[in-house]
Specification:
The chain is mostly beta strands and about 220 residues long. The protein has one helix at about 5-20, and strands at about 25-30, 35-45, 65-70, 80-85, 90-95, 105, 125-135, 140-145, 165-170, 180-190, 195-200, 205-210, 215. The chain contains 1 helix and 13 strands, in the order αβββββββββββββ. A 4-stranded antiparallel β-sheet has the order 8-10-11-13, with no helix packed on it. A 3-stranded mixed β-sheet has the order 3-1-6, with no helix packed on it. A 3-stranded antiparallel β-sheet has the order 2-4-5, with no helix packed on it. Strand 4 (about 80-85) and strand 5 (about 90-95) form a beta hairpin.
Length: about 220
């Protein structure tokens, strides 16, 4: 049921200064060689993608599309941008600094480009750096208290991977005075696991995973 008209008017009067400033626009240029069917733009600090901005439109190769940013540049000027082509292949620009009406070009160099930067970190929780030297691309990172019987959720952002030789900084789930022993599991593109168990952690430490951490089975 829709809200009453006088409530909507009152809300509009009350919050008008907040919505007075519209988010700026940018031009997305497609130089991938394929038609683009989906476009999503998210603040870099966000943990999820925004809605598809193309709707029923497409961006043919060599063409541009004007899109409005999810928030004004006075709120944020760094965004993650994802486009998806007719074959379902995705192209990314991560932590991209944007200015009003700029043209942002996507090429084959942006295909499946991994986001190496860390997700937004909570300053109230300790951090740990995970280094991938397994020889494979890591698709999932899970961290669990050693005392727990289950793994925590995947700590990588949606569509994020950790290439071999790369590192990522993540928050631990709890403060060190709550628990300082954790199990860590990395899963590669083949579904193989690499684990470190009952690790006594300290703030800002680095954990390196190699083939010696490979663990067979589930």
């Amino acid at each position: 049921m829709k809200k009453l008209v006088f409530c909507a008017v009152l809300a509009g009067l009350t919050f008008a200064p907040v919505f007075a400033q519209k988010a700026e626009q940018v031009r997305i240029k497609n130089s991938t060689g394929y038609s683009i069917y989906y476009l999503r733009i998210s603040e870099t600090s966000s943990d999820s993608w925004g809605n598809d901005l193309l709707g029923s439109a497409t961006i043919s190769n060599g063409s541009t599309f004007t899109a409005r940013l999810p928030v004004p540049l006075s709120v944020a000027n760094r965004f993650d941008i994802q486009v998806e082509d007719e074959d379902g292949d995705k192209y990314y620009k991560w932590n991209f600094q944007v200015s009003a009406n700029m043209e942002i070009e996507f090429t084959m160099a942006d295909l499946n480009r991994s986001r190496n930067a860390s997700p937004a970190l909570d300053p109230n929780l300790p951090t740990i750096t995970i280094k991938n030297n397994t020889g494979y691309e890591i698709w999932y990172v899970k961290i669990s208290q050693t005392a727990s019987d289950t793994w925590g959720p995947d700590r990588l952002r949606e569509d994020q991977v950790l290439p071999n030789g790369s590192s990522i900084m993540l928050n631990l789930p709890y403060a060190l005075n709550v628990t300082n022993r954790y199990d860590f599991r990395l899963t590669d593109s083949d579904g193989d696991h690499y684990e470190k168990r009952d690790v006594r952690v300290s703030a800002n430490m680095t954990l390196e995973f190699t083939m010696s951490d490979y663990r067979s089975g589930n």
